[in-house]
Amino acid sequence: MVAKNLLILGSTGSIGKSTLEVVDQHPGKFVVRGLAAFSNVELLVQQYHKYKPEALCLVNESKADDLKAALKGEEVKLMFGEQELINFTQFYYVDIVINAVVGAAGLLASLETVKQGRTLAVANKESLVCGGPLFPEILKKTKAKILPIDSEHSAIWQSALAGKENELKNVIITASGGPFRTLPKEQFRQITKAQALDHPTWKMGQKITIDSATLANKGLEVMEAVVLFNIPASKVKVVIHPQSIIHSMVEFNDSSVIAQLSNPDMKLPISYALFWPDRVESPFGALDFTKLPDLSFEEPDLDKFKALKLAFECAKTGGTAPAVFNAANEVAVDAFLKEKIRFTDITRCIDESLQKFNIVSAPNLFDILNADKEARLIAEELIGNQKC
Ligand code: NAD
Ligand code: MG
User: Fold this and answer.
1) Whose C-alpha lies nearest to ligand 1, atom 27?
2) Which ligand is nearest to the CA of 218?
3) Is residue 224, in this structure, part of any structural domain at all?
4) How far apart are CA 243 and CA 279, in angstroms?
5) Domain match, 214 and 127 both
6) 191-205 in b/e burial notation, b at 16+ Cβ within 10 A?
7) What is the torsion angle, in degrees rounded to the nearest 10, for the CA atoms of residue 211, residue 176, residue 228 and residue 117?
8) Does 173 share its domain with 126?
9) In this predicted model, what pLDDT tens digit does every residue of 42-95 receive, in sequence order?
10) How far is the CA of 221 from the centre of ligand 2 (A)?
């Protein structure tokens, strides 16, 4: 295989670092052409010295001087700011753009990548959720490919290869259930930040860890599946599977179910996306069936985890509803991490923001960006007034 050229957006985060570990595991198979991050100059500089990319992008411009000083005399193109993150995806000679940015901040970079007809390996589920109505037309025009990195969507992608598109009956997304699966609903108000950040099976960035505790993450994944696999929301099911061994399944019209299994390790779906259409020997996530715990399954409790119920509704409604859900959630999670609101307020904020919003059913980019902006204002106001 000829070495593939990579551009990694969000290289300093959990998925970004795991992507670089996959690169390390396979010497000569990948060339890192560019790295982008928000503000972690120290780690970005370390990554620069190790991988020697031609370009770096730092989105937080207030740290620009620090990066310039740290790399004085180095031959590297430096780019700064939000607009440059989008321009960065046009960087010459790249085979795969990996979007591992967190939040809707990754939307325009994802769109630009596919507009250029480039292959997008996407962990940044929020960009698919918000930009859902825009991707089909661009993909039709440019024939760009989107390769999922999210473990559930990688599992669906792999399992779906066992049948034809028109034979697919349902996709079944598994969920660990998060740290509060068995906690009585009455105790949810007392949940602390530290408890919510302690996920039972996955080690991830802070935002997705909180999303996993509210099950908003599963909700985002339902909306992500609708976009990635071009299926109606009615075909997307969620089942709780606390051991996180089956990463998702596909049910065909003959009722056969095909699943993908491994120990939970994001480096496995990352490797699958980077090497696709090949599979390569890899140590990540290997299973010993004789040592597995019992695998169990249960229905999600949509009363206790209302964020998932709201997400199903948004997936069905479509238009700008998913963008509103996402924006309200981002604002509320940020407020929870700053200990300004309670755990239960996160879902309440999503709910009330959705109720206050007029959904546009066939939005263009302007409508989506506007929905994102307005929903943030509504959510901030709700939080400011402590209405949620
Ligand atoms: P993280 O917080 O660890 O890292 C986020 C990265 O995005 C950092 O490199 C940061 O510099 C960058 N970033 C933050 N704000 C930015 C902005 N405004 N503009 C540009 N870059 C910005 O997050 P993570 O856990 O790596 O998650 C990244 C994405 O992958 C999320 O969408 C998440 O839902 C998805 N994901 C993560 C995991 C996981 O195991 N961590 C699994 C599946 C999907
Ligand atoms: Mg996932």
Assistant:
1) 102
2) 2
3) yes
4) 25
5) no
6) beeeebeebebbebb
7) 70
8) no
9) 999 999 999 999 999 999 999 999 999 999 999 999 999 999 999 999 987 899
10) 7
275 is written with which tokens?
């090497």
Q: DSSP letter for 209, please.
A: H
Neighbours of 249 (CB within 10 A): 23
Q: What is the position in ligand 1's atom list of the atom closest to the CA of 220?
A: 34
CA distance 272 to 154: 8
Ligand nearest to the CA of 204: 1
Alpha-carbon span 109 to 111, nearest angstrom: 5
196 in the same domain as 83: no
User: Is the sign of the CA dihedral 129, 134, 138, 139 positive or negative?
Assistant: positive
* 358, two tokens: 């007029």
Residues in the chain: 388
Q: What is the CATH number of the domain that holds 67?
A: 3.40.50.720
Total domains in the fold of the chain: 2
The pTM is what? 0.97
- CA dist 331 and 341 (Å) reads 11
